[in-house]
């Protein structure tokens, strides 16, 4: 009887999530290259296109984040399936379903219908990862995109993001999650530090900078350090999206010309990691060089131009 009870207790302990997060970098051997990313699918289907070799060599063969939102179906199933196929490699995922998403920009609108629906969704997202190693960027732009929102909406959004941090801490112990902190020229560093603190950044690994934007790595490092200088509770690691920052920022954010791929994904490089969070070639919206391409749709010409800085 005692032996049976001991075995039962050991089984419960083995099944419980780890109390202390392990490094997902140390648990894996490099970043996962998604064979079904938008660029990879286009490359596979367009072998005869003259742009295909450059896109294949420079974009589709690189580790790129996978975005999850209201298009993903049952998010727990979708996330679990994605993480489950990465083997010994480290997947990078983006949670992008906050209600009122892109409220002020307007090109990527949508998201969960209510705060309650979002809480269910983000909890399921974290459960889909479970104890497997992963990196997650939480809600790009959501803490920077306040200028068209009233105080009640800001408080509601902040509470949702804080809930997200609590879910990843509790349910995905081997995930490094990062709250998005906008970019180097959007929100003053001290203001962003206060927003990150209110949204629970101390519950997760740190914060992300420059997602879907073009500011140089150097400018992003300066901004990240400035945010950390004002962050209550102590400095946190940060990651930088370098997918399209090779030529820096030209004052435009929506499919601007003359931009270029940045440093391929790696650990270190001035931040904890340099990542390709935005999918190179995916449109920012019906604007700039791609006035007929919806946000999130892959355009081979946008991708090709990023290879050469056109």
Automatic annotation (TrEMBL):
Its EC number is 3.2.1.-. Residues 1-21 form the signal peptide. Belongs to the glycosyl hydrolase family 6. It holds the Pfam family Glyco_hydro_6. PANTHER family: 1,4-BETA-D-GLUCAN CELLOBIOHYDROLASE C-RELATED, PTHR34876. The keyword Signal applies. One of its GO terms (biological process) is cellulose catabolic process. It comes from Lentzea guizhouensis. Gene3D superfamilies: 1, 4-beta cellobiohydrolase (3.20.20.40). Keywords: Carbohydrate metabolism, Cellulose degradation, Disulfide bond, Glycosidase, Hydrolase, Polysaccharide degradation, Signal. Substrate binds at residues 67, 186, 213, 253, 278. It is an enzyme of class 3 (hydrolase). The active site is at 141 (proton donor), 284 (proton acceptor). This is Glucanase. GO terms for molecular function: hydrolase activity, hydrolyzing O-glycosyl compounds.
